[in-house]
Fold this protein.
Amino acid sequence: MIEVDRKSVSEPAEFTRRAVSATKTLRLHVVRGETFRKQNQLPLNEELLAAPDLLDALQGLFRGCCAFCETPLLDSEKKFAAHFRPRQRASQLGGKVDPLHYWWLTYAWSNLYSICSSCQSIRGTRFPVRGKRAALGSNTGIKSERALLLDPCAEDPEAVLLFTDDGLVASTSERGSTTIDVFGLNRASLVQARRDHCRRVDHIGDQFLDRNQPEQWDEQKFIAAVMGE
């Protein structure tokens, strides 16, 4: 997981225009009361969440990779948008479910991400928070919510995640450890891929040193030269 500047890609205009109406539809459903909601499913517009301009924007923003594990997405995984805060039935680590969180962010550009099927399957609808969730329908309340998952579009995950040369990722912080667990960032396939990559970089570095005079390089110049190789 690496930091991503969401402002580097423009919010998809046509998707955003259509999202206004789609969000109103959700709001009308919610305000009709609990009895109505139990008898009728939340009217989610799956077609809108697969809008071409939205998917193109997400692919550009996350470089065609999963926002959470950085695995290149399969073609099938590029055909839908995922949510940082789930669109409904957000659950705590202990299993407590909040049925209506976070329906109002279903079509919010700031809440939409690219995700691989593995991260999505492992994560489910878990979105743990410390303390209370934001009030239903509140965008301002989101800012004060104490989320336990790292948001790559709002902070630098590498400040709290430690990637080692044996392919593992660890953290000494609660949020870092929770993120690793919820997205399964130490699953076998990711650990092996990171380990293989470290070995390739080490091999290139060894070859580079064989052809050059190591005492002529400081650390940063050496790393830049190896990455160039």
Q: What stands out?
A: The radius of gyration is 21 Å.
